[in-house]
Amino acid sequence: TVFNDRHFSCENCDGCVSGGFDAATSQIVLCQNNIRQQSHMNRVVTHELIHAFDHCRAHVDWFKNVKHLACSEIRAANLSGDCTLMNEIARFKFGLKGHHQTCVRDRAIRSILAVRKVSKETAEKAVDEVFDACFNDLEPFGRIPHNKADAKRAYRDFQNRDRYNANL
């Protein structure tokens, strides 16, 4: 069960970090001084909730296994809306073929470097080693929610998952 006052914290943060997941307290931190739009906050919350989901589901070793961190960052970048076309245009990054995967890879590396003192080469290697498996892991959504309609369909599928499985 998630309790807003227990599992979410709004704080002032250093640099340009927008949020984080604290595995020790199972708390999502939102950087109130760096989030200025509702759409940005929605992405940050979704991104951090994916880390929380991974923490509960996969028993991620956040501090000792950079591949675990890389996988969760890949999933969060892929599923949170970080790499939508509009966000990439706002960042002045353009591309068509394979651009979503490139964005996910770049954002995952950037996130690893922001939270761990590892070399760029170490972060890139970890992302490359787990990329395919983690990029294709779409839980808990079952799809990449590219827009609100996709997100609503994913939620409806989630609500009906037991009904479908009962017929198997």
Structure in words:
- This protein is globular.
- It has 168 residues and is mainly α.
- Helix 2 packs across helix 3 and helix 3 packs across helix 5.
- The protein contains eight helices and three strands.
- A three-stranded mixed beta sheet has the order 1-3-2.
- The protein has one domain.
- A hairpin with a 4-residue loop joins strand 2 and strand 3.
- The mean pLDDT is 86.
- Belongs to the peptidase M76 family.
Total discrete domains: 1
Distance between the termini: 29 Å
State the strand order across the main sheet. 1-3-2
DSSP helical segment count: 8
> What is the helical fraction, as a range of percent?
55-70%
How many beta-strand runs? Answer: 3
How many strands, what sense, and barrel or not for the largest sheet?
3 strands, mixed
Choose one word for the global shape.
Answer: globular
Task: Report the β-strand fraction as a percent range.
Answer: 5-15%
Radius of gyration computed on alpha carbons: 16 Å
Tags for this model:
mainly alpha, 8 helices, 168 residues, single chain
Question: Gist?
Answer:
With 168 residues, this protein is mainly alpha-helical. The protein is built from eight helices and three strands, in the order αβββααααααα.
Topology:
Elements: H1 4-7, E1 8-11, E2 19-22, E3 27-31, H2 38-58, H3 66-79, H4 85-90, H5 99-115, H6 120-135, H7 148-159, H8 161-166
Parallel strand pairs: 1-3
Antiparallel strand pairs: 2-3
Helix pairs in contact: 2-3, 3-5, 3-6, 5-6
